[in-house]
Amino acid sequence: EVQLVESGGGSVRAGGSLRLSCAASGYSPRLYCMGWFRQAPGKSRESVAAIDTDGETSYKTALKGRFTISLDNAKATAYLQMNSLTPEDTATYYCAISTVTYGCFYHGDITTWGKGQTVTISS
Question: Per residue of the chain (123 residues), what is the pLDDT tens digit?
């Protein structure tokens, strides 16, 4: 059974930073990529960032420069460093993986979703 263990969410003031982590286990046949999506209240889920096991990254354009995704292949753990946070970053952040494609930036690429964790940025 695939498990995604997410951590690092919480509440910070605007201008602060958070680092999300997501550890994957139980996947088969192999892990191709990991990524994060987010969903703000009343909005649809959107892609935030993705990274494949070769280190190729993709970002929502508006978040480039503030968010950085990384992957520890040996631990099958991805990290999302989020800096200069604003209230507009408030959302539930979902970790996601794919065991079939190098994508992870589009909903259709995802084979397993995490349960999500709340990130709240106060002004």
Answer: 999 999 999 999 999 999 999 999 999 889 999 999 999 999 999 999 999 999 999 999 999 999 999 999 999 999 999 999 999 999 999 999 999 999 899 999 999 999 999 999 999
Cβ atoms within 10 Å, residue 101 = 14
Tokens 């952040």 locate to: 93
> Residue type for 67, please?
F
**Closest Cα partner for 80 from 99, 66, 90?**
66
* Six token digits for residue 91: 């959302």
Q: Which residue has the tokens 């919480």?
A: 10
Strands 67-72 vs 33-39: parallel, antiparallel or unpaired: unpaired
Q: What are phi and psi of 44, to 5 degrees?
A: -80, 160
Q: How many residues does the chain have?
A: 123
Q: Are 70 and 81 in contact (CB under 8 A)?
A: yes
